[in-house]
Amino acid sequence: MRYWRALPALLALATGCAVPLEDETPAGDETSSLESSVTWEPCTVTARLLEDIHPGAPGSEPEGLVRGEDGLFFTADDGVSGRELWVSSGTGDAGTFRVKDIRPGLDSAEPNELTVAGGRIFFTADDGVHGRELWVSDGTSAGTFLVKDIHASPLELGPSGLVEFGGRVYFAADDGVNGRELWVSDGTAAGTFLVEDLYPGGDVFDPESPGSSSPRRMTRTPNAFYFVANVGRDVKLWRSVGVRGAIPVFEAPEDNVVFSMTPVGGELLFFLVDNDEGEASLWVTRGTPRSTRELRFFHGAYPHDLTALNGRLYFSAGRARGGLEGEPAGEELWVSDGTERGTRLLKDIHRGAGDSRPGSLTVMDRRLFFAADDGRRGRELWVSDGTERGTRLVKELEPGAPGSSPTELTAIQDTLFFSAETAERGREAWVSDGTPGHTRALTQLAPGPTGSNPSGFIRSGWDVFFSADDGEHGRELWALPFRPKDRCGR
């Protein structure tokens, strides 16, 4: 057992209570079900470079950061082995190292879609022999292996759309016999098999070939998962509980696009539908065809940043100016309770026809944080309690236009991590507890106004990880110690 697996027990001993190491949030729920009385905080304002994986200016470009039982998993290119699977214990003693050179030599295995299921990391990779297939890892080289060679041809697209449900991973794959359909895996060859052939008939353009429903956009909820798949000339939104018998809850002609599925409160699933006009309608379902209904059509740009909070959906969208249908107006913050009447503009932040363009919506402490431009103070950090009156500016970080333009908003325990840009410091990492007095910048990583452009904030163990470019090492992996209050110095 690696030492960082013992951290939960060590933490419980240190604090005298059982504390979850990871702040898990069940799909479809806006807040963690593992409530803890322990308050976490950054132990310092200075992040640490963990490893110069690819020495020199290019950097290793860490991607796909996910939290596993054995630390933080990610992909990186060290300039010698190509892009492969890596793991890090953060500021702990175990270090940062490559898990396995799946495709030996300079060529890259290009691990993709890293997904935690059953205590292991599932992903797709190309070892140069089998083509892109499903792999699994326990964080060791010996425990990282090809699960199953699903398609004999190395040229096949490979598995895609990985989602965890019930401790197993579900995905789309083509075995060369049944077309591209829904599969499942428990990490063994015997436990990797076709769940359901949703489109068993021949392709409309080639009756001799198997039909492919091409499952995609997998979205997990507490009791099921949803995905989009085609049958013949129809596109459908399906609900599955992981066994044969998935049901379509919505269907339309194949030129429609169904996307942005967002679970709210464990029962509702909101989604968008573009009926081939470049604009979208907001829909909702409770998991049955009868409960599926359209809420509102939005002219202009797609609604975006769909986010669940306190049983409602919040999102950014335009509205019809003066009530004239088809005439777009400002892009503002909207809310929906799942009814037509309850789908409405929450606040006109940039009054009139201007756009406040709310973005990077994220939830912390039952409040909604986002970036917006009120037309006077530039694009800055805002917060909302779900009411018009309770939607306000948190702090003006860079006075005047265009503001600090916060991005990468990530709530970790009761601390908001984000990237913001100022004239003197460039784009660097910031933290906030949601109040002006405790919204502050971390130590600048790249001297001067260039900025390190931090991204991908994620917690694993006793650290918050992110990638950044300090101007000397290229884009590499950094970590900031983040522990229970009063435990930082121990």
Low-confidence stretches: 1-35
Structural class: mainly beta
Strand content: over 45%
The largest sheet is: 5 strands, antiparallel
Describe the global form: globular
Signal peptide: 1-20
InterPro entries: ELWxxDGT_rpt (IPR030916)
Protein name: ELWxxDGT repeat protein
Keywords: Cell projection, Cilium, Flagellum, Signal
Give a topology summary.
Blueprint: H1 7-15, E1 40-42, E2 48-51, E3 63-68, E4 71-77, E5 83-88, E6 96-100, E7 112-117, E8 120-126, E9 132-137, E10 144-148, E11 160-165, E12 168-174, E13 180-185, E14 193-196, E15 202-203, E16 206-210, E17 216-220, E18 225-231, E19 234-240, E20 247-253, E21 257-264, E22 268-274, E23 280-285, E24 293-298, E25 304-309, E26 312-317, E27 332-336, E28 344-347, E29 359-364, E30 367-373, E31 379-384, E32 391-395, E33 407-412, E34 415-422, E35 426-432, E36 439-441, E37 455-460, E38 463-469, E39 475-484
Antiparallel strand pairs: 1-39, 2-39, 3-4, 4-5, 5-6, 7-8, 8-9, 9-10, 11-12, 12-13, 13-14, 15-16, 17-18, 18-19, 19-20, 21-22, 22-23, 23-24, 25-26, 26-27, 27-28, 29-30, 30-31, 31-32, 33-34, 34-35, 35-36, 37-38, 38-39
